[in-house]
Specification:
2 copies of one chain form a homodimer.
Chain A: H1 2-6, H2 21-36, E1 40-43, E2 49-53, E3 58-68, H3 81-98, E4 103-110, H4 123-128, H5 145-154, E5 161-163, E6 171-177, H6 182-186, E7 190-196, E8 198-207, E9 211-212, H7 224-239, E10 247-249, E11 253-256, E12 262-263, E13 266-275, H8 278-289, E14 301-310, E15 313-314, H9 317-330, E16 334-339, H10 344-348, E17 353-359, H11 375-393
Parallel strand pairs in A: 1-5, 3-4, 3-6, 6-17, 7-16
Antiparallel strand pairs in A: 1-2, 2-4, 7-15, 7-17, 8-13, 8-14, 9-12, 10-13, 11-13
Helix pairs in contact in A: 3-11, 9-11
Amino acid sequence: MAEINALSGEQSGQNRLVYSSTWIQAQQQLIAWGQQLGLRVTVDRYGTVYLDLVGREFPGQIIATGSHMDTVRQGGDYDGLYGVIGGLEAIANLAKRFGQPKKTLRLIAFSEEEGSRFPATFTGSKHYARLPVTETINDDQGLSFAVARAQAVAQLVKDGVVFELPQLPETFTELHIEQGPRLFDQKIDIGLVESIVGQKRYTVVVKGQANHAGTTPMVDRADALQTAVMLIHYLQEQRRRFSEQLTLTVGAFAVLPNTANVIPGRVQFTVDCRSSDAIELTSYGRLVENLAQVETNPRISIEISQWTETAVTELDSMLLTEHQKLADKLGFSWCKLASGAGHDSQIMAQVARTTMIFVPSVGGISHAPAEYTPTADLERGLALLTASLYEQAYGGVTTNK
Amino acid sequence: MAEINALSGEQSGQNRLVYSSTWIQAQQQLIAWGQQLGLRVTVDRYGTVYLDLVGREFPGQIIATGSHMDTVRQGGDYDGLYGVIGGLEAIANLAKRFGQPKKTLRLIAFSEEEGSRFPATFTGSKHYARLPVTETINDDQGLSFAVARAQAVAQLVKDGVVFELPQLPETFTELHIEQGPRLFDQKIDIGLVESIVGQKRYTVVVKGQANHAGTTPMVDRADALQTAVMLIHYLQEQRRRFSEQLTLTVGAFAVLPNTANVIPGRVQFTVDCRSSDAIELTSYGRLVENLAQVETNPRISIEISQWTETAVTELDSMLLTEHQKLADKLGFSWCKLASGAGHDSQIMAQVARTTMIFVPSVGGISHAPAEYTPTADLERGLALLTASLYEQAYGGVTTNK
């Protein structure tokens, strides 16, 4: 990982935005490593890199692992990259110890997952999973996704690289840092991901009337901020009626005119709610959608619009059970958990049996330069992934059920 | 007023920021009018213009009226200017009808009241009242108050203009639009101002920990926005325990990092509270100052700093009683009220018997291009001011008590 992370140079944190020069160098480095290891290298037109250790008996049955190569702005050293480099190490180790597998082992470095450059997420795994991707989008410099993509991918396709969209795998196992504090706080080695939370995101606009803070009597006010506060307080109170795993975040909040001595005429805020329980999420979402009925001041208007809707993704329970057994054999402590963040696995789960292995994040810090996982934890995750890929590709029965 | 307002040209609303070119032209125009009327013209080193109709018997006893010449950015046609032009018209009418008064009549056009260019308010009336003014301040272009002042005032001091800080008056009567909706809503002609509200303004900073909106369990969060909402909700609830005339405004609210899917790590908001009841204001102010005791999450820190403290100003009750009688004689409906906005009168009240006459503001709109008062209302205010100045300067007994 150090080689890839060194590509970001003197910048603060990792900055491998999709199709940027550091991203191109990282994918080129990965291709070079794949070729040195004698793996079959494929690149698709989105720039996702596939490194195959081709199977002896069932080359068309593919056991895949991997994660994404891109990062957020000023991201950490582990998010995404750990799953890519960990997957490559696992396959290299297996090749060295056991030679050619029965089924094909595939390392995947998805082009993009974070949505940090273009207003779209999971474009790499969506393209691989044959799901629609909107390409008519621009980055904040006005450069189109299609142009940036074509220019970057042209630099990956060289001699010895197959340029195609390869076949889908039977299974996908993603190794990742937790990005939250649960494993770290409870001193647990491994998190086995049962599901990825569903998400709903909304924008709420409260319109009142800007006015003089001194001369407008309280009863005559249409104070958008006071109403916004009342609505968020209501959402807080209602959230307590749900389980602790339903999260509520009001992350963005903008006021007009935003001056100490003027009553706010307009407030806009976001509501992000997530849960691994689909019923709970639907129920809480309805509360947000009906916020306009909470306010009774006729001078205030409230508009709610939803802009994200991601269903709860259940990951594969058989692969998880297999990972429990392997973790026990390896002497690792483990727990089941739901992922509060989105991952490529939620896309892959739509087309293949999919599972995730989490390792602890110190302090739960992620998407920041301070993101950190000790080497011992990284190695435990790698050991479990290696054992799982061995079972799946070298003759274990797991994937034949 | 139309001539002065035309100086702002094609801009939206009035923009006579102190010492700007439109402000200089306006004061020059006022000086020219004073000279045409044969008034004695004085300018002080802050650029306040004084036009005196010198008294016959008691020239050293000064009956003053006026208001400020500056405006907020994109202000209205009436705030300040109505009191300046109305005062000039009243004096011109009295001079024409009754000739020289017993006492000196003085029209004052204060240089600055709004605090819209430099971070200081009431600098014109404070300078006249011999109160300290901080001059080591800059506008948002980095130009210092002292330099801007000297350059502008140099353009007012010409032949026939006395350059000095003149003597303080016995009384000051300020004619002004209400800037609130009470007179308009209740269809009352005249507001007689008993007091000007006291103000306290605070900045509250809530510091938590920015974190991932999906992976951070609710119990592990140090969400600065949720705490800020709780504190403002608490302030709302507490405000209900006070009288309706205690106002609470949270006008400015800033969030970091202000992203939908990141838990806010820092929120800063302002609290503006006002009351004409000094005890009530002190009591509510203490609630704000003790906000840090409301929160119990040890991961959240709260800092409160106060940056404005204006005491309640009681205006002169004898002048108010005189105005009641005059309004009755003129057949105008009137009520007593407290001013929710600050005015030059709160400064002048510290050095002279001071009173204010309000006329209705349509819809209570002020500090905006839509600020409006019908001519009939403007003329009623002018008639009452004229009657009052006649009583005070031409032999009424009011000011001799």
